């Protein structure tokens, strides 16, 4: 999903490591620089983006 400030939002899901546990976060990246940061804290809940 692209936001109005030339940023890209994506949902990242990590799983594995010998457990059935998944961790999710929304990551925000600046398109002009490629710099990325966490937009939400890490969560064991399912995260969704809506437009």
Number of helices: 0
Mind summarizing the main beta sheet?
Answer: 3 strands, antiparallel
**Regions with little confidence, pLDDT below 50 for 5+ residues:** none
Number-wise, the strands total 3
How would you name the oligomeric state of the polypeptide chains in this document?
single chain
Query: Which bin fits the share of residues in helices?
Result: under 10%
Instruction: Tell me the strand percentage band.
Output: over 45%
Radius of gyration, in angstroms, nearest whole number: 12 Å
SSE series? EEE
Distance between the termini: 7 Å
Strand order of the largest sheet: 1-2-3
Overall average residue pLDDT:
83
Q: Which structural class do the helices and strands define?
A: mainly beta
Principal-axis shape: elongated
Annotate the secondary structure layout.
Blueprint: E1 7-16, E2 19-30, E3 36-38
Antiparallel strand pairs: 1-2, 2-3
Descriptive notes:
The protein has a domain at 7-38. It is mainly beta. The protein has no helices and 3 strands.
Which structural traits does this protein have?
51 residues, mainly beta, three-stranded antiparallel sheet, 3 strands
In short:
It is built from no helices and three strands. The protein is an all-beta fold and 51 residues long.
């Amino acid at each position: 999903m692209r936001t109005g400030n030339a940023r890209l939002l994506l949902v990242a899901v990590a799983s594995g490591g010998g457990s059935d546990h998944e961790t999710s976060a929304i990551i925000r990246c600046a398109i002009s620089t490629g710099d990325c940061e966490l937009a939400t804290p890490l969560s064991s809940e399912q995260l969704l983006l809506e437009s």
